[in-house]
Write a structure and sequence with these properties.
390 residues, three-stranded antiparallel β-sheet, 60% helix, disordered C terminus
Length: 390
């Protein structure tokens, strides 16, 4: 019996597109409840410093709750809660993560002490609590008191946080996954006469594409090999993180500007410290340009090199963040409309956007890798020119 592959492809695409809908449509109730409380309080203060939040209508509270969930889904967390169940979300399915703080000494304890952000954690006589508004840990008293300024910002002392948060944990998971995957691919080459086996058959064409269509054309056959390990790492690292962000795990790593900035700075440092003399000569003393213009163009060219990591940072961060925000907003519209027409339409739009996000996840990895290769190529490019002598 021969089965057509088209229905199978459609089923796989539909399953992949549906995964982020599961993630967004099933929030952890404790997070939403806490987030909604904070958002409602902040909204009330913006209208009247002494406003009573109980005066808000049910629709207004629901709207604030939806906005709060969209915002808090984008934040990192100190525990890995997959979902909550029960009448008030009192039962949680997940696991705690280690909290590591520096506050006049090292403090190490489990995030379970915070009880999903609802309790105060004690360590060596000091008390700490998580602020639901930004997900950060602040030093407080035994009652968990926060002091705020006129704008609602917490004034409590903030310890240096080295905790293994949800984002850090997923970075470690992706790093381990990549190590095992490509180490296995390397071993299969040795055992099977340079023929990939298993999952390597899927990833081998992608590796060859990065080499033949990204690295060699932009860097050149003479220098591309020393950059291949970084280009492959950055491509699969961003791609895997983006794909994990579309699963019910609910992680938003590449939508965190600290992560994208770290990747961009690393690219900038490699470009800077591997650049040849010609690269710097064309920045500070461009051949064939009148001397007065060299003094004008040099600062502009130098500024251009500094802008490159900012463009890498913002491009990846903004695209992934916008995708998460729009997708979750469409999901929330299903609950807002609550009608036979509006809710299915919102679901359909979210479903189509989920398919687009799968493409964007790969596209952003490609763009980041392509731009990194362009920067590396410009750093090692060999210029052949002759200045006019008069």
């Amino acid at each position: 019996m021969v089965l057509s592959k088209k229905p199978l492809h459609f089923f796989i695409a539909a399953l992949v597109a549906f995964l982020p809908l599961v993630s967004s449509a099933n929030p952890t109730n404790d997070t939403v409840k806490s987030a909604a409380t904070e958002a409602t309080h902040a909204e009330a203060k913006s209208h009247d410093a002494h406003a009573d939040t109980a005066n808000l209508t049910e629709d207004e509270k629901a709207e604030l709750e939806r906005k709060a969930y969209v915002k808090h889904h984008l934040l990192d967390s100190h525990d890995f809660t997959l979902f909550s169940y029960g009448k008030d979300g009192e039962k949680h399915f997940g696991f705690p993560l280690p909290v590591i703080l520096w506050d006049n000494g090292i403090h190490f304890f489990s995030s379970s002490k915070f009880e999903h952000g609802e309790a105060v954690a004690e360590s060596n006589g000091n008390y700490y609590k998580i602020d639901h508004h930004n997900g950060k840990i602040y030093k407080t008293d035994a009652e968990g008191t926060f002091t705020e300024d006129e704008k609602g910002h917490v004034n409590n002392a903030q310890p240096i946080d080295f905790s293994i948060t949800k984002n850090v944990f997923m970075i470690l998971v992706v790093g381990l996954l990549m190590f095992l995957l490509f180490a296995g691919l390397g071993k299969s080459y040795k055992k099977n006469g340079s023929i990939a086996k298993g999952a390597g058959r899927f990833f081998e064409p992608i590796i060859l594409y990065v080499r033949d269509d990204i690295a060699i054309p932009n860097i050149g056959e003479k220098h591309y090999k020393k950059y291949m390990s970084f280009l492959l790492t950055i491509f699969f690292f961003i791609w895997f993180l983006n794909m994990f962000g579309l699963t019910p795990l609910g992680v938003n790593i590449t939508g965190n500007i600290a992560i994208t900035a770290s990747l961009a700075i690393l690219t900038y440092l490699i470009t800077t410290f591997t650049a040849k003399k010609d690269y710097w000569k064309h920045i500070f003393w461009m051949p064939g340009v009148p001397v007065p213009m060299k003094f004008i163009l040099a600062p502009i060219e130098l500024l251009g090199t500094i802008i490159k990591p900012f463009s890498l940072t913002i491009r990846l961060y903004a695209n992934m963040l916008a995708g998460h925000v729009v997708l979750m907003t469409l999901i929330s519209l299903m609950y807002k409309f609550d009608s036979p027409i509006g809710s299915p339409l919102s679901f359909l739009l979210a479903f189509v956007l989920s398919l687009l996000e799968v493409l964007v996840a790969l596209l952003q990895a490609y763009i980041f890798t392509m731009l990194a290769a362009l920067y590396f190529g410009s750093a090692v490019e060999e210029h052949h020119h002759e200045e006019a002598h008069h």
